[in-house]
Design brief:
8-stranded parallel barrel, 10 strands, alpha/beta
């Protein structure tokens, strides 16, 4: 998760009448088209992090991601490194796995300066960069002395994404908006929009419509709920919202990325849990699922051996 020059996409996965269709079990694929990704938080020095990125590729993950924040609220006291240089370094230790931001926001970025980062990552990865975009929370902007309501942040996002889309398509771009301005903005070595998918993170109605009309795919962190069943029930409502928006936009074949780890359970608590969650995601039409590299404690605490088992028993099946 394009209007004029769409990137080649696989059709979303849908059930075929079998109530167990697409359900993943250890030793069997979750669904024929389901792709798997892992997010590696940018908290470690590169001499320690490099091996995780190359391992993600060796294990068979289709894509690897990192967060794009000044400070992440989940680990405010942790060491933290920048997303773009991290992905640039990851490009040098990988060759096939796609690499992306999960996700970049306008909180401390201008679309034109971010374009330069996007073009550079597209070049360094040789077309493997996935540009995840989201409204963003308020922590990064508050650190910079900016106070915006949620509506104001959403309004800004709805100017940011179309302008970035245009900058990836055109050269000498003039724009005079409520938040952003450019004058004769050169965009060489563009245009690159046909190579760089814009994946829009959205749960609310306005941004879901933006993902459906302008994005190459939709990213969601899923539903709400104190139990896994409640979480998937709310997720199904979000899928229905996105389906309606896609139908209204007259589009089809958009990729759908689900972050598994906002549920009440970390998806890598066990191989069985990961397989169940990935399978249920496939049944709801998601083309991609994303987990997190296990950490020793705190958010996403888990065992790397489970990740390796998932790779062997689910990804490689």
């Amino acid at each position: 998760m394009s209007p004029e020059q769409p990137v080649a996409q696989e059709q979303p996965v849908t059930p075929d009448g079998d109530p167990t269709a697409g359900r993943a079990v250890p030793g069997q694929p979750a669904t024929p088209a389901l792709r798997h990704g892992v997010t590696i938080l940018p908290e470690m020095p590169w001499r320690e992090a490099a091996s995780l990125w190359s391992a993600a590729e060796d294990l068979g993950f289709d894509h690897a991601w990192t967060y794009d924040h000044l400070v992440w609220g989940g680990l405010p006291d942790s060491t933290w490194f920048a997303a773009v240089p991290t992905l640039a370094a990851a490009a040098g230790v990988t060759s096939t796995i796609k690499l992306g931001t999960f996700v970049s926001s306008p909180n401390y970025r201008h679309p034109y300066t971010f374009l330069r980062d996007v073009l550079t990552l597209d070049d360094l990865t040789e077309g493997r960069f996935l540009c995840g975009l989201g409204t963003g929370g308020d922590l990064d902007s508050r650190i910079l002395g900016e106070e915006r309501t949620l509506k104001e942040r959403v309004d800004r996002f709805h100017e940011f994404v179309p302008l970035l889309d245009r900058l990836l398509r055109e050269d000498r771009v003039d724009h005079d908006g409520d938040v952003y301005r450019t004058r004769e903005a050169r965009t060489l070595p563009g245009p690159a929009r046909h190579r760089v998918p814009l994946l829009v993170a959205a749960n609310g109605p306005r941004s879901v419509r933006l993902a459906a009309t302008l994005g190459d795919g939709w990213i969601t962190y899923g539903g709400r709920g104190d139990t896994l069943e409640a979480w998937f029930a709310h997720l199904a409502e979000l899928v229905e919202r996105f389906d309606e928006a896609v139908s209204t936009a007259g589009r089809e074949g958009l990729d759908r990325y689900l972050s598994l780890d906002s549920s009440p359970h970390f998806s890598l608590e066990s191989v069985d849990l990961y397989a169940e969650m990935a399978g249920r995601a496939g049944e709801l039409g998601f083309t991609d699922v994303v987990t997190h590299w296990p950490r020793p404690d705190g958010p996403y605490a888990g065992d790397v051996q489970v990740l390796e088992q998932v790779a062997a028993e689910v990804l490689r099946a």
